[in-house]
Amino acid sequence: MPTLQSLSQRRDAVTSTKKIMSAMKMVAAAKLKRFDALFKETRKQKHALMMAAGPAALTLEDFPHYTHHVNNRPSLWIILGANRGLCGHFHTQLIRSIETHIAQEKEPPLMYVFGDRLASQLKGRGHTLFKTEAQFKQVQTDAMATLLEEAVHLYDDKKIGRICVVSTHFKNALSQDVKLLSLNDLLAPLTASSHKPGLLPDVTLEPTRALFVRHWIQTYLVFALYHLFVESILSEEGCRMTAMDGAVRNSEEILEDIGLSYNRQRQAMITKELTEVISGAQALC
Q1: Residue 165 gets which letter from DSSP?
Q2: pLDDT of 113-133, one tens digit each?
Q3: Cα 8 from Cα 258, distance rounded (Å)
């Protein structure tokens, strides 16, 4: 049976852990609110970009060469993870989805992983990574343009046959989905929005339609990547806030159990001491 001293030490340790988890929960909640506002704003801007593509009447033939899938080459997967742990099932569901999709690929994909924590977990499970980067603390479109340019160079050098993004899609703080999207999947809304009626059919595109389409598609892809990175960080903070909330509740239950054990042990010691005093008094009489 544990002593009062050991129970007291354990209670202090759990109380200290609870304070840390509560602080992490508040920080995650603040970041969740900030990135949720940014996510909603980028979604509006992405929709505006889609609508602005209407006058060009885009079709699949307008998509750049690097969006075409070459079957006899491996795919490049840009995987969006996190630098830190303590974020619940965020990395678990990412790894499960990655391994499921790898089993369906003819050639092992080249995995370009963003997030030190996710990279270490994938390496620990025996996966070979093409390249790793720390997840961005502040997502910027310039970094997205550089990333897209690097991927296109790999495609032009015939090292890859397709460019995909594996990221977590945010539903709410409790629920997220992992999806693998190719560049064609990212560009699909452009063709859908381009054929809606009433989108300025008589607009003249300068200097030429081909130049406009090429520049516009590249701009849209950069912003689509930016949107996915923001959504991934939003999902991470949602998972972390939920995990810390669960940890706080668990610590409260543990403290309650420790309190009951402490009181029982203390009452048993008091009863024992009283019994010894009464027995000694009776012996003297």
Answers
A1: E
A2: 999 999 999 999 999 999 999
A3: 8
